[in-house]
Amino acid sequence: MPTSSPIRAARGVRDILPAERAAWAAVERAARQSARGFGYQEIEVPVIEPVELIERGVGGDTDIFRKEIYRLETHGDSEDEPGARLVLRPEATASVVRAYFQGGLNQGPQPVRLFTIGPMFRHDRPQFGRYRQFSQFDVEVVGDPSPACDVEVIEMTWGWLAALGLGSVSLELNSIGDDRCRPAYLRLLQDYYRPLRDRLHPDCQRRVDENPLRLFDCKEEQCQPFKAAAPRIIDHLCEPCATAFAEVKALLDAAGLEYRLNPYLVRGLDYYTRTVFEFQHGSLGGAQNALGGGGRYDGLAAALGYPDTPGVGFAGGIDRVALMVEQEAGEVPVPPAAVLVLPMEERLDAAAAQVGRLCRRAASAAVDYSRRSLRAKMRAADRSGARWAAIMNAEEAGRRVVQLRDLASGEQREVGWEDLPASLAGADGAGGPEASR
Ligand code: HAM
Fold first, then answer.
1. CA distances to 42, 90, 99, 134, 413 from 55, in Å
2. pLDDT tens profile 332-356
3. Which of 128, 132, 135, 9 is nearest to 69 (CA)?
4. From the CB of 279, is ligand 1 less than 6 Å away?
5. How far is residue 143 from each of residues 247, 298, 312, 314, measured CA to CA in Å?
6. Phi/psi of residue 327, each to 5°?
7. What pLDDT, on a 0 to 100 scale, did the predictor assign at position 434?
8. Is the minimum distance from the CB of 310 to ligand 1 under 6 angstroms?
9. Which residues pair with 118 in a beta bridge?
10. Ligand 1 in reach of 175 Cβ (< 6 A)
11. Strands 169-175 and 273-281
12. Residue 10 DSSP one-character state
């Protein structure tokens, strides 16, 4: 008897069950293919990072750092460096740039093209498409200031989303300048917003002085009317930033990639300089409509205490992209195995295991060891989506043969155990391990 209520997952995190995992697998497979197609190499970075990496990388005044970071409680710090404060990473860019220096990748040929796929953590209000643990496909080009790299990242990302057959995706583009032009622009923005301060949401009242660019991130209804007349950064770029932005646009045009200029796109992370962009999807509602976003971060390396090094990158939300793939393509059915081995008697378990082993030389195979009737086993096999059933009674096991039944056509024939691999060749085309990898 259970003594208390059954334990459920924490709020905002979820299980990706096999039916949904198939779409995830397709999204991840396409991500790896797109990245490798452009010469990006896979890297793994830790899920746990020092808090300073996020504070100085993402920025101490971002919502991500102020409200959404998960801090770890550790068991004393005797083994840790004194005062080590750790967090679950909310994103991967700062980690990848740290790893680029720490691993000596800055010593080799430049730029270095990297990608990683993995979970990120943000204590955000959960809703459709927004979770507290979510997965990102993150790509970074470190060590090259060319606008051509910005466009390369965008083109690769378009390729990824196109390979998944996603329609109604659009690209929004902006430049947010750099250390030379942004400070003067921010003063203009403050001059515009200060007289309006009393009419702003409390968070925005604080932002006017502390981080005015974040005023554009605000989703509060009461702050929206003031955005339209606010000065726009693209009208105040310095000459080098304006030239770089013109080149990004020219290269996007040359590549035939469509975009929409959005002067209010500033992104929620502090490390960006110059180009910023976001991919939106029509059916993702409201604030969660970004399938992914990125931009250039030429000041990030220095903010982390490393030599000044340019970089540009992008991260796509696997959860959101998979949701859209499912919505547009329907559920991707993946049978657990192409062949189901159905022994008709209990004492045939060892023989059935051996048949399973032989089948696996050519296709994925699972054995139904349950004690239910053959009829029940056949019904389950039909429902599973498997392509074949290999049925066997004691007499057949003695002769080392099975009845191999095509579950779609109902055709059945006797096949010797040793001939199974040849008879099943190609069966995984209908599903099986390859389809879900
Ligand atoms: P980001 O815009 O914060 O950028 O996140 C990128 C994508 O991750 C979002 O567009 C969204 O699809 C997904 N995402 C973010 N938060 C959640 C959530 N709570 N639930 C589900 N999906 C979410 C970055 O993280 C930057 N590091 C991107 C980058 C790479 N910039 C340069 N290099």
1. 25, 11, 17, 20, 66
2. 556 679 999 999 998 999 999 999 9
3. 132
4. no
5. 18, 9, 9, 15
6. -65, -40
7. 37
8. no
9. 136
10. no
11. antiparallel
12. P
Q: Give, in degrees to the nearest 5, the angle at Cα 298 between 296 and 300.
A: 105
Q: Kindly give the distance from the C-alpha atom of residue 267 to the centroid of ligand 1, in angstroms, as a whole number.
A: 10
Is there a contact between 244 and 274 (Cβ–Cβ < 8 Å)? yes
Identify the residue whose C-alpha is closest to ligand 1 atom 23.
317
Longest CA–CA separation in the chain, Å: 91
Is 80 exceeded by the pLDDT of residue 84?
Answer: no
Render pLDDT for 4-39 as a digit per residue (tens, 0 to 9): 899 999 999 999 998 889 889 999 999 999 999 999
Cβ contacts of 330 within 8 Å, gap of 6 or more: none
Residue nearest to atom 8 of ligand 1 (CA): 317
Q: What is the pLDDT of residue 113?
A: 97
Report the share of the chain in percent with pLDDT over 70.
Answer: 93
Nearest of 250, 301, 312 to residue 275 by alpha carbon: 312
- Percentage above 90 pLDDT, the chain: 78
How crowded is residue 349: how many other Cβ atoms within 10 Å of its Cβ? 12
Q: What is the pLDDT of residues 86-107, one digit of tens each?
A: 999 999 999 999 999 999 999 9
